[in-house]
Amino acid sequence: QVQLVESGGGLVQPGGSLRLSCAASWNIFSFNAMAWYRQAPGKQRELVARIFYGGSTNYADSVTGRFTISKDNAKNTVYLQMNSLKPEDTAVYYCHAQVGNPAVTNYWGQGTQVTVSS
Question: What are the pLDDT digits (tens) for 28-57?
Fold first, then answer.
């Protein structure tokens, strides 16, 4: 059982920055992928950014150029650097891990609140 613990959320003004961290209880080097999702009130959970086993990444169009996902295998941690934050980025951000081949298991963190407001 993989445990994922997010941290780094909070209140920030528009145009500001935050860095989210997700610490995993397993060695993330072997994970198929890790990702950040978010869910705003009244909306569906959506993919924000994903980083694959080999290091390649993809992003939602709404955050491309502003957010950067990265990972530190030695620390079993994935990060989401968020710059030029907008009020519409306000949401609960969840860490996700996909593990296993061919049978895949998905794991989720408990979420961390990000609020962008003046």
Answer: 988 999 999 999 999 999 999 999 998 999
- For residue 59, give both structure tokens: 């992003």
Task: Give residue-wise pLDDT tens across range 63-112.
Answer: 999 999 999 999 999 999 999 999 999 999 999 999 988 899 999 999 99
d(CA 107, CA 40): 20
Neighbouring residues of 44: CB distance < 8 A, sequence distance ≥ 6? none
DSSP the chain: ---EEEE--EEE-TT--EEEEEEESS-GGG-SEEEEEEE-TTS--EEEEEEETTS-EEE-TTTTTTEEEEEEGGGTEEEEEE-S--GGG-EEEEEEEEE-SSS-EEEE---EEEEE--
Q: Tell me the average pLDDT across 14-37.
A: 95
Residue 2: alpha-carbon gap to chain centroid: 16
Closest among 38, 113, 29, 45 to 78, alpha carbons compared: 29
What is the chain's length? 118
